[in-house]
Write a structure and sequence with these properties.
Length: about 325
């Protein structure tokens, strides 16, 4: 039996359609937490450019083969290692302070919750140490959350940008911060700029070896006790070289730095030529009965950073320091 020849039909090649992998969209809230987490990481582990530049200059000023030079070398090594390994610049990651500058209509309560979530995550990842304890019981929840922690300050402005600045202020430098009430008869300090000068220098002398120098001073002349301290600390968000708007205070800022660096206290109180790196002074109105001068001392581990957020996506757009 003869088989009929069957006609072979060539199979049409199957067109492979590339699968479209849709990029997973992240919600603005989740992106905000991620952006805040990165802000915390950078603040904790990377020294701001202006501070790093000032520390390197100070390192070159100290005489070689001295304890001061040795201390500055260790500080320099510490900064390099922290940045490379993305580990905290200091084991005391300090009080977590936020300043949020926002446009009108911004909702503060939801954003506070996002900040809390970012702080908890940063603590789990090790960018922040377990530093916040209950003042009455001493209990540490391990979250860095609690009454007053973190410290969050909201400021409404007329612009459309969302700027978040943060600072990590260690306990050592906070402990040597001070407040004076003028006149101070013990220091022969009256209610004038010369009296202000005397109490600032007194604070630096008392802080020697305790505030992890070379330090930076944020100073407020005037205000009530609470606002004076807060405004003094806020000066530490200024960039190095950013002088006061008041000519008399500009002169005092410069004089304080020059005088302090002639005291021989030096890095870590070991002696040397660099006792403080910078001094920022501002003033608030006061009552006639009161004349407070507040000095907020910052250690060499000057951890402050800030960023502009995209208000729609909540992604980081620009670093501020």
């Amino acid at each position: 039996m003869v088989k009929k020849a069957t006609k072979k039909t060539a199979k049409k090649p199957i067109k492979k359609t590339a699968k479209k992998t849709a990029s997973k969209k992240i919600s603005p809230n989740d992106q905000a937490v991620a952006s805040l987490l990165e802000l915390i990481r950078i603040t904790s582990t990377v020294m701001p450019v202006d501070v790093d530049r000032a520390l390197k200059k100070a390192q070159g000023v100290e005489e070689k083969n001295t304890t001061a030079s040795y201390a500055m070398d260790i500080i320099s090594d510490n900064i390099a290692i922290a940045k490379t390994k993305s580990q905290p610049l200091c084991q005391d990651t300090g009080t977590v302070i936020f300043y949020v500058y926002h446009p009108a209509g911004f909702h503060q309560i939801p954003f506070t919750k996002l900040i809390h979530k970012a702080v908890m995550t940063a603590t789990k990842k090790g960018y922040l140490r377990h530093n916040s304890v209950d003042s009455l019981t001493g209990e540490n929840a391990g979250t860095n959350l609690g009454p007053g922690h973190p410290s969050i300050n909201y400021v409404e402005h007329t612009g459309k940008t969302l700027e978040v600045k943060m600072m990590l202020k260690g306990g050592g430098c906070e402990n040597v911060s001070a407040q004076y009430s003028l006149p101070d008869t013990g220091l022969s300090a009256g209610r004038d700029l010369d009296g202000v000068r005397k109490v600032i220098l007194d604070a630096v002398i008392k802080a020697q070896g305790k505030g992890c120098g070379p330090g930076v001073l944020g100073v407020c002349v005037g205000g009530d006790r609470a606002d004076s301290h807060k405004h003094a600390k806020k000066q530490l968000f200024r960039k190095f070289g950013e002088r006061s708007k008041n000519k008399e205070l500009v002169k005092l800022e410069t004089e304080i730095v020059e005088t302090c660096n002639k005291l021989g206290i030096g890095p870590m109180g070991f002696g040397g030529k660099t006792t403080i790196l910078e001094c920022f002074i501002d003033h608030l109105n006061r009552l006639p009965a009161s004349f407070f001068v507040s000095i907020s001392y910052m250690c060499w581990s000057y951890r402050r950073q800030g960023a502009i957020f995209d208000t729609k996506t909540m992604k980081l757009k620009k670093w501020l320091y």
